[in-house]
Amino acid sequence: xxxxxxxxxxxxxxxxxxxxxxxxxxxxxxxxxxxxxxxxxxxxxxxxxxxxxxxxxxxxxxxxxxxxxxxxxxxxxxxxxxxxxxxxxxxxxxxxxxxxxxxxxxxxxxxxxxxxxxxxxxxxxxxxxxxxxxxxxxxxxxxxxxxxxxxxxxxxxxxxxxxxxxxxxxxxxxxxxxxxxxxxxxxxxxxxxxxxxxxxxxxxxxxxxxxxxxxxxxxxxxxxxxxxxxxxxxxxxxxxxxxxxxxxxxxxxxxxxxxxxxxxxxxxxxxxxxxxxxxxxxxxxxxxxxxxxxxxx
Length: 297
Description:
The protein has 2 domains: 1-145, no CATH class; 186-297, no CATH class. It contains no helices and 24 strands. It has strands spanning 5-13, 24-31, 37-53, 58-65, 74-82, 85-93, 97-101, 107-111, 120-125, 131-145, 151-158, 161-166, 175-182, 184-190, 197-203, 206-212, 220-227, 229-237, 241-247, 253-256, 261-264, 267-269, 279-286, 290-296. The strands form 2 sheets. It has a 22-stranded mixed beta sheet that branches. A two-stranded antiparallel ribbon has the order 7-8. The protein is globular and about 55 Å long. Residues 1-23 have low confidence and may be disordered.
């Protein structure tokens, strides 16, 4: 069978006219064709990045919201389809920036005359095909509302940022390894069990972190949490059976709700761990920080 290939490449510097009527302008959209799966990589050095579910007929829509009349944001969008597999690469950078990618894929960004009024980007992805999503974000804000998408892979890496992640409905796909890595940041996640993962790893630097494991769970999953210098709160519904193993240093602080039974030093179990339909094995390692494990209804 003859291979069908579509390759689209855009490297554009946008200078948008000031408009009192239009707060958002569509910068780019890609229509869906014969894709059966999709790989997405989103990179941003600085700004506010918002990712959510779009419509079935478009692989992606990208919006840009202006902060000032003289801003010139940088958008590099590359898309290709090979053998019904789509590959989408999106890079978003502030004005006056130049960037390059090494052979290993690492992005280097240099900015002159930097303007700290952050660009606001809105990226909506199709819910019609399975998606492997990777996001690498620098400074700024990020909001990932991934409710309704069909995710098979998810990796989020943030720098100095304030970030949120939400799964208000169950992921249509199954994620083997969900990876989250944060730097100097404030990070909040809601309904993580709706992500439908088998294993989750969370690694933090300096900041405060809230991990809510609400959502649907009907199997046993593994969670690894590594806290550097920061405070993390872990919230788990009472219906879920939980085993917590905690490895601390003498500079860290750990607290856990009274309903958990201490089995031995550093190991705690909920009284429904053996009987619950959904169970979590949580391993926590903390350096110089604090960890709280709490129950919710």
